[in-house]
Write a structure and sequence with these properties.
Layout lengths: L2 H22 L4 H5 L5 E8 L3 H17 L5 E5 L7 H4 L4 E2 L8 H11 L6 H20 L26 E2 L5 H14 L4 E5 L1 E7 L19 E6 L4 E12 L20 H8 L4 E2 L4 E8 L12 H5 L3 E3 L19 H15 L4 E4 L5 H7 L1 H11 L8 E10 L2 E3 L11 E3 L4 E2 L12 H19 L23 H18 L6 H24 L4 H22 L15
Parallel strand pairs: 1-2, 1-8, 2-5, 8-15, 14-16
Antiparallel strand pairs: 3-4, 6-7, 7-8, 9-14, 10-13, 11-12, 12-13
Helix pairs in contact: 3-7, 3-13, 5-6, 6-13, 8-16, 14-15, 14-16, 15-16
Bound molecules: flavin-adenine dinucleotide and succinic acid (SIN).
Amino acid sequence: MSSLKENFFLNTLLKKTNLLLSHSGSFSNSQIFKFIMPHKYDFLVIGSGIAGLSYAVKLARHFDEKKEPVRIAVITKVQADETNTKYAQGGIAAVWSKDDTFQKHIEDTMVAGDSINNKKVVEIVVTEAPERIQELINYGTRFDKEHDGDQYDLAKEGGHSDHRILHFKDITGAEIERALLAEVKSYESIEIFTHFFAIDLITQHHLGETVYRYREDIKCFGAYVLNRQTGEVEKFLAKTTMLATGGIGQIYQSTTNPTVATGDGIAMAYRAKGICDNMEFIQFHPTSLHQPGKKPSFLISEAVRGFGGILKNKDGSTFMENYDERLSLAPRDIVARAIDSEMKRLGVSNVYLDVKHCDYEKFLEHFPNITQYCKDHLGLDIRKDMIPVVPAQHYLCGGVKVNEFGQTNINYLYAAGECSCTGLHGANRLASNSLLEAVVFAHRAFEKTIENIDGAIIPDNIPDWDDSGTSHPEEQVLVTEMTRELESIMSNYVGIVRTNRRLKRAMGRLELLFAEHEELYKQSKVSVPISELRNMIVVSYLVIKMAMARRENLGLHYNLDNVK
Ligand code: FAD
Ligand code: SIN
């Protein structure tokens, strides 16, 4: 039976069985769901941002062209488009104009990354960029063009030596997400499961074997996933699993990342004995809109500085000349630290971005969303008022370590996008290289997946999720308060500027939180808040541990005790 037919048959059987049982009167709801067959797929993709969707589309198209049946599941913890991708503003970087060169993009990426980038990966990403971006265009993604012709309007951002950012207004990510979702929906072989929350990856550990981090034959067989509608944990079995779960911003009080960014994929991989790297390199975007208490923070794109916006203090004086000759367009680590230092020096809670001198009509054309948001939320008229800005957590350069084909150290487990660490960014990501990395690595992972698929086997004795002895936590307030504590630890001790003492204190506090949470987790029926907190604790642990181990200041990691 082809897998598509098999799926239809199983689903029909399942519906009939559940109907029968629910009318029998002798089973409780939870007992009924124990009869639900596991989901069996060829490919499981966890995450529906640019990385996950690009990978799924590539697989579907490949099997479509070969006229072979295939089953691909894409799961996402809320609605499909709620991703970091959707909020991307500035754009996607690539050498596109004839005056620009691959060599210049490679050098800019290396300089931003403090030269600890993996040079080979940098070369791969930069040279493969135009082909991958052309694919996005072929899927229907629109990028702005210049008025007087067919050429793309290429923007410039901090750290770039040339104009090379393709963008759609100031909502590039939403446009890419829209086009990719439409493409995904055109394939019958892809099923999207919205409001499904992946809890843990399945490996030999679940078959009773001892799995340790440097064992070479760990295999991933899929994931245990919480169906948020039913509250039941379902088994998603797959020959290959792709982690595309995005960032970790929610571990900080102030972040540009949406609420889905809780580092789930990284934590799941780490628990499954995956290797993580470069977690200390947390990027703080210099210019999020200053709106105290608002989470996530609204981003004022770096492209605004590329357009001519200038950083200033309240009295209108400039300060970047005291920090870097590239002024407001220096790489992000430098600008964010400069702002942090100005705020501390003057005892203020924000600085300003001045665009009053810019051509208003042109500004509006490029940044309609930002202009409108500033007006609606702070009553600002950017022709007369400066925009109050403050740094906020924005991006994680590290993540699950992968090779140049997106393979993790766990067999049949790939990672792409923000949750992965490819080595592209080194100690600091160059603006607009993230969306690019995601499409390049989704493609490379797809190619390797196809090459390796024949060896993949799913054992038939993987146990169901066992939650016997647990109950629904009565005190949800504990999870809420622990989450607040975690955000406070990370923001106060593991921010833009670190010290040995702050890091030590952070680790001490985190250990207490970990112990309290473990106790609660073991007693509780699994829920999204308790699982997200569990993941955020793991991810914070990795950030602090790697920050403590890093003895020199590089890129985004700045420890005052390392200053000679
Ligand atoms: P995401 O797009 O974040 O997708 C993650 C997916 O994983 C979501 O579908 C989520 O629901 C799902 N998920 C997570 N955990 C689970 C779980 N446990 N179970 C099920 N599903 C789960 N980069 C650029 O290159 N250029 C820009 O201009 C730019 N601007 C940005 C502006 C903002 C405001 C932000 C926040 C980021 C920006 N970035 C930009 C960074 C870039 O957007 C992200 O790094 C990139 O979109 C990440 O894509 P992704 O596919 O890896 O993850
Ligand atoms: C921005 O628009 O400033 C964000 C760009 C990025 O994160 O690469």
